[in-house]
Amino acid sequence: MNLSSKLPESVIIFGCGYVGTALAEQLLKHGVRVGALTRNPEKASMLEAMGVQHVSISDLDSHEWHGAVGDYAAAVNCV
User: Fold this and answer.
1) In what order do the strands lie in the sheet with 74-77?
2) Backbone dihedral angles phi then psi of residue 63, each to the nearest 5 degrees
3) What residue ranges in the chain does DSSP mark as E strands?
4) How far is CA 47 from the centre of its chain?
5) Which neighbouring-strand residues pair with 36?
6) Which of helix, strand or coil describes residue 64?
7) In 3D, which of 56, 6, 55, 58 has the Cα closest to residue 27?
8) 63 pLDDT exceeds 90?
9) DSSP label at 26?
10) Residue range 6-47, pLDDT digits in tens
11) Mean pLDDT over residues 50-62, rounded?
12) What is the pTM of this model?
């Protein structure tokens, strides 16, 4: 089975702690464009170094992140 053919072309991950970061890593390995929202500046730097294309440092409890998301085919909430 070719997993890459079944994945969306892009995914935004809300909350990139342990689970969200592991998901981002796997998606990137399969050529998926990944974006992420995190509250942690150190985690944001690590995600960018991994190849995550758009990282926003936001608190999902606020409305600030609404304009920062961009256009993605799928969203995953790992908060």
Assistant:
1) 54-57, 33-38, 10-14, 74-77
2) -100, 0
3) 10-14, 33-38, 54-57, 74-77
4) 8
5) 13, 55
6) helix
7) 6
8) no
9) H
10) 899 999 998 888 899 999 999 999 999 999 888 888 888 999
11) 74
12) 0.81
